[in-house]
């Protein structure tokens, strides 16, 4: 059997198992109707052109809409290509739950990433929530235009990972790249200005590029809204990876694969939240445990009823537990107590607990409420009205290039470098020989 005969055989077998790409479009009106019936509060929208050919599709499950009020108001949006016969692009919107897990909000299938498709997507998304949002994305111009029209009051940030990729492709020098990361992740204005001035001295063209990229969009310290610790679109990239196989399915099959993934995620995470015995989520507890070890090496001096001075060998910071602020600004931006705040809380001798200093979004009961609504499959026993059955959705007209369809994209320079990078060696403590700390912060020495 030659190559092309094997390829045609594979296509025929997939069509028998999955259904044809054409049937995937024809089934959409009925499928979306049945999903709405099975999941109250679900938002769907199917748009066709004057010839009844598919144009746009939007889906936001009622479970996601009910759970989003318990999320930090940071939405990450991204697009990825589909692999089926008629191609297209899958747009996604996600958030981060209080346990640092992906929380899917909405999905859309469009022809390509352009001004019209992104504006249409954000118009539908605005029905979910449109107040006090921070939206993180790559530097796609169409996304910026659409956000400006639909969410004029939202704060927009760009993904620092995509910014780093662009810098690696355009500029050389590891020292300059290190300084860019330092400037982007700085919590204090003085730390940012020091790193930014070093970049200007070392590479003026890179400095101009970063200024043009708008420091309000890619830096922590200048961001006008609340983005907490979310600086990249990694959560959407991870979800695209989770849906990698499903992106080869016809559209109705793709949506059901999304539904199945969300059914599993919501069920597992709801059960996990119920099993948590702590007030804070497991992820936050682990993060704070790492900070406690360092906090116990710090010296605390009370200033007044609300403020304390926290010092180490190299730094001095002022913590206000009433206003939940610290001069290091980590506490202010992440809404989780930094090591200085933990030290000040422990020095208060029970007057203030570390738990009370955490934002409510990180509480385990908030996590449970996020996933309290189940994502249900369609019920084939429910009759479908003739008006829904009679709706026509034809596949779009697309140009099929010759040869075998591509299933993967060309990897960037940064992605190739990460693949070749050796895993970082974990250094053990010289006192107890465990990893995660050194001899100065060793619990056995305290």
Automatic annotation (TrEMBL):
<keyword id="KW-0862">Zinc</keyword>
<keyword id="KW-0863">Zinc-finger</keyword>
<dbReference type="InterPro" id="IPR007527">
    <property type="entry name" value="Znf_SWIM"/>
</dbReference>
<keyword id="KW-0479">Metal-binding</keyword>
<protein>
    <recommendedName>
        <fullName>SWIM-type domain-containing protein</fullName>
    </recommendedName>
</protein>
<dbReference type="InterPro" id="IPR006564">
    <property type="entry name" value="Znf_PMZ"/>
</dbReference>
<dbReference type="InterPro" id="IPR018289">
    <property type="entry name" value="MULE_transposase_dom"/>
</dbReference>
<dbReference type="Pfam" id="PF04434">
    <property type="entry name" value="SWIM"/>
</dbReference>
<dbReference type="GO" id="GO:0008270">
    <property type="term" value="F:zinc ion binding"/>
</dbReference>
<feature type="domain" description="SWIM-type">
    <location>
        <begin position="317"/>
        <end position="349"/>
    </location>
</feature>
<dbReference type="Pfam" id="PF10551">
    <property type="entry name" value="MULE"/>
</dbReference>
